[in-house]
Amino acid sequence: MNGLKTTMLLAAMTALFMALGYTIGGGAGAVIALLVAAGMNLFTFWNADRIVLSMHGAREVDARSEPEFYALVGTLAQCASLPMPKVYVIDSPHPNAFATGRDPDHAAVAATTGLLSMLSRDEVAGVMAHELGHVKNRDTLIMTMVATIAGAISMLANFGLFFRGGDGNGNHNMAASILAVIVAPFAAMIVQMAISRTREYSADRAGAEISGNPRALASALSKIAGHAARIPNPVSERNPAAAQLYIVPTQLSEMFSTHPATESRIAALEQMASTMPPPRMTETASTPPKAPSALRPAARRSSALHPHRR
Fold first, then answer.
1. Among 22, 46, 44, 45, which residue's Cα sits nearest to residue 34?
2. Cα 82 from Cα 43, distance rounded (Å)
3. Per-residue burial over 239-270, b = 16 or more CB atoms within 10 Å of its CB, e = otherwise
4. Dist CA 112 CA 84 (whole Å)
5. Of 6, 10, 212, 246, which has the highest C-beta tally within 10 A?
6. CB neighbours of 162 closer than 8 A, spacing ≥ 6?
């Protein structure tokens, strides 16, 4: 049922793109929009990870460059019975993370330096387990395709007002212009929200099961949400459609967010924690470790969770 719903929503997004093409260029514009949408979907299928990672300027890391962070992702991937994904770090103070790729065999996970330096070991594990939950649920391709089409709709709408033909007297059709500039991007945002919100709850549950510590993920969400709203994210400012890829939204408005309210997600995780056995990892979200751990070395030594190794 979830797959059918997603297919229908993707079809709606494509139809919206065609309608916008028709508004700008008539029947020929609709046909061109359909061909462009098909080409974008095909291109995104094969290049989803490259598109998103290049957009964020992510750098790939491995067991030599970031051994602790890479090992953590590897352990979580084993717990999830997933192939080892490619691991990336983004040099940005904005705290966030995402997963991408067309399937579990071609997946990649990424986290910003701001997130890695802010969270405890178990909180980072919870976040990366959430992203692996998206991989396990095969959300990554859908989310990237939707973000790509929504971005194209916004771009086409911005140009539509200026490039739409006149009515023979040189006057623009005001109703069509309003549709091109306002209604189409708003409708695309609604479709994005419908696809993304339920998938975040599913990924939270999967991430909690993978890490075995729902409260650590809940604590991480609380910290990230508080800082993500204050620290600029140039990528999402240039392309708002990318916001649905992140673990938390990059704007304050809950009504227009691609994610459920963070408080609701935390409440669901707390409820889940009450029915699960104690976490497998020794460090809790609320209690810092008494001694350095593999991912939290002594204070003067750089860590993979603060990826500026000397």
1. 22
2. 25
3. bbbbbbbbbbbbbeeeeebbbbebeebbebbe
4. 19
5. 246
6. none
C-alpha to C-alpha distance for 51 and 134, rounded to whole angstroms: 18
Reading the block at residue 68, the tokens are 């602790």
What the block records as the tokens of 46 is 């094969």
b (16+ CB within 10 A) / e for 75-108: bbbebbebeebbbbbbebebbbbbbbbbebebbb
DSSP state of 293: B
Question: With 0-12 CB in 10 A as exposed, 13-18 as middle and 19+ as buried, what is 137?
Answer: middle
Strands, E, within the chain: which ranges? 59-61, 86-90, 97-100, 108-112
Indicate which residue of 66, 68, 123, 131 is catalytic: 131
Polymer length in residues for the chain: 310
Please answer whether residues 142 and 229 qualify as being in contact, where contact means their C-beta atoms are separated by less than 8 angstroms.
no
- Is residue 131 part of the annotated active site? The answer reads yes
Q: pLDDT tens across 181-239, in order?
A: 677 667 666 766 666 667 888 899 999 999 999 999 999 999 998 888 788 877 766 76
DSSP helix/strand/coil, 304: coil
Give the separation between CA 158 and CA 15, rounded to whole angstroms: 18
**Closest Cα to residue 150, out of 17, 279, 21?**
17
Higher confidence at residue 86 or residue 5?
86
Residue with tokens 């093409």: 21
pTM over 0.70, yes/no = yes
Residue of 103, 117, 67 whose CA lies nearest to 87: 67
Residue 270 to residue 217: CA distance in whole angstroms: 10
Handedness of CA 278, 279, 280, 285 (dihedral sign): negative
